[in-house]
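[Backbone geometry]
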Amino acid sequence: MFADNGYHDALVDEISKRTSMSKGGLYFHFPSKENLFFAVMDRLANKLVRRAEKAVDKAESPLEAAEAALEAVLTALSKQKRLARLLITQGYSMGNAFETKRAEVFDRFAKIIRDQLDEAQITGQIKKIDTDLASRVWLGAVNEIVVHWLFSGGQTPNDAAPDLKALLMNSVQGDISVKSNKGGSQ
């Protein structure tokens, strides 16, 4: 219901009918519709995190693991458009509460990528970079690919994966010397 209708248009009465649970039963377990929405987000995010972690475990090097985690998320989101819509956009009308939850979910994925990039840096696979920033850039790119697919008919995240992975891998492997531009020209 949330994925199809958005947060505000998903009615608790309809949700209870689809789940075979009474409205009172839903409110017993989830004191508000917001709590229910966030529980759904958490459940779906947990599934995606497990997929990413499994992909990491199968990789032979930290850099391959970061790439595998990225690909696992792109593939999963491509196969489940409703999941992508729910995690990325369907709660925006909730305001700050959704943004806070969304940031929490994205932080979990960023940590998986950051941990692998940290290890890749230690083993000399990538140059010295701010791995926290790099992991967030990667997730920002994934987010943009998914939003473009959902709302503009762009290619699926899975179809975009080869080029996206090449760009992102180059971003951590290529010459990435960055100079601060504080008040002057470079």
